[in-house]
Specification:
The chain is mostly helical and 73 residues long. It has helices spanning 5-23, 27-35, 38-44, 55-72. The protein is built from four helices and no strands.
Length: 73
């Protein structure tokens, strides 16, 4: 199933806002991380209908990905 592009853009904005608050990043840095993340790639490709998950769930997934990246550096 494909989600409406406008609805997805609004969802992305909410996810980035939650992620920025949780990580302490600026919105600009959070947005950059988001658009370069595996989480974004999976959502935008419609994998497992991730776009249907809550914003909080997806922000948590993004945070897990961020922590994993931080630990590997």
């Amino acid at each position: 199933m494909e989600a409406n592009k406008t609805v997805l853009q609004m969802k992305y904005a909410r996810i980035v806002n939650l992620f920025a608050k949780e990580s302490g990043m600026t919105l600009e840095d959070a947005l950059s991380f988001f658009y370069n993340s595996t989480t974004y790639e999976l959502i935008s490709e419609g994998v497992a209908d991730l776009h249907c998950r809550s914003d909080e769930y997806l922000a948590d997934e993004l945070m897990l990905e961020y922590k994993e990246k931080e630990n590997s550096e």
